[in-house]
Amino acid sequence: MDQSNKRRHVRLKHQAKIKLILPVSQVYIVKMKDFSESGLFLYSSDEILPPIGTIVQVQTTELEDAPIQTAKVIRVEEGVGFGLEFLLP
């Protein structure tokens, strides 16, 4: 079965720089591959791949004072990046 058929929401390809805040107060600027209503996929090096289940915070750098979203790592692709699911407040 095609992986795209399993998604709850349509993914929109959009390249943007995202501030990634890890639980240990490490902050990185990474590129986004795509996003949907329920999450996003971020490109990253293997050095900053958080394990599945890690709670992180993300914020777009495209808008001044953009809201910070809390998300959970739900998928990791070594050498590529990781997928996040937004957590409801």
Largest sheet: 6 strands, antiparallel, barrel
Poorly predicted spans: none
Q: State the total count of DSSP E strands.
A: 7
Question: Helical proportion?
Answer: under 10%
Q: Structural class of the helices, strands and pairings?
A: mainly beta
Number of helices: 0
Q: Which CATH-level-2 architecture?
A: Beta Barrel
Give the strand order, joined by hyphens, for the main sheet.
Answer: 2-3-4-7-6-5
What string, H for helix and E for strand, traces the elements in order? Answer: EEEEEEE
Key terms:
single chain; 89 residues; mainly beta; Thrombin, subunit H; six-stranded antiparallel beta barrel; 7 strands; 0% helix; 47% strand
Would you mind describing this structure in some detail?
By secondary structure, the chain is mainly β. It has one domain (3-86): predicted glycosyltransferase like domains (Thrombin, subunit H). It is 0% helix and 47% strand. It has strands at residues 12-13, 17-21, 27-35, 39-43, 55-60, 69-77, 81-86. The chain has a 6-stranded antiparallel barrel with strand order 2-3-4-7-6-5. The chain is globular and about 30 Å long. The N and C termini lie far apart (33 Å). The relative contact order is 0.23. The model has no long low-confidence stretch (mean pLDDT 88).
Summed up, what is this model?
Helices cover 0% and strands 47% of the residues. By secondary structure, the chain is mainly beta.
